[in-house]
Predict the 3D structure of the following.
Amino acid sequence: MKVSHEELRDQTKKFALRVIRLCRALPRTGEAQVPGKQLLRSATSVAANYRAVGRARSKAEFIAKIGVVVEEAGEPMI
């Protein structure tokens, strides 16, 4: 299944918004807030960096930028 750039851009934004809502619902304890903040930073970074992929000026820049997206997407994995 082939997915367009616009569809992936929209999906990463929706994902970031869902994570924001999740983090708002977490208890206000340190045990919940520390991993919640890491997840929040990672999810919003994926969306922001994927939008930057669309502005790549060369194939090499595209590869570098998409690498950052992949790295950020794997950040919160335990």
